[in-house]
Amino acid sequence: MKALAYDAVMTPLGWLGLTAARRKLVRGLAGRVLEVGTGTGLALPGYPDTVTSVTAIDVDAEALERARRRRPDVELLHASVEQLPFPAASFDAVVSSLVFCSVDAPATALAEVFRVLRPGGELRMLEHVRAPSSGLAAAQDLLTPAWQRVTGGCRLNRDTFFLVQQAGFEVVRRVQRLQGMSELIMARRPQAGAGRRASGA
Q: Which of 103, 156, 107 lies closest to 130 in space, CA to CA?
């Protein structure tokens, strides 16, 4: 989806609560943050002052130009989350907002996120995902092929929570909304010997 069209679609969703959700996603973060799939930078203005630096990547150069106008002080790079151009343990937190539905190799991407996070570093995700209801999930399965073509790769039926767990993250919070089709995931790269736990709200 072209950058201008994407912003046009996102504007009414922002009024309906997506802008507030993005601000909550980054609330309380500190240190060095990587935002993957930043798109046109809709989440960039919401970062708190406790974040010392934000690096944002996307595969769409046109979208990055719009992002630059929103936050000129942010380091913006043309790069893929499936092959991050950063050393291991470079960031205190990684953020994604409506990104992993369109990543071709999400397991590879999450392995890269795991690699660039420091031990104990946070992963925060706001994604639309596969519904827990079998009826809704079946509808998503049916719609996804056509939807993917129209939107440039978005999969309605991706089980992102399962992929995060499989990548080795410790899930510390999971919030499901819209009958489970929208999900907030807060996770960490474990410290050595740490276990896993998850809580909902």
A: 156
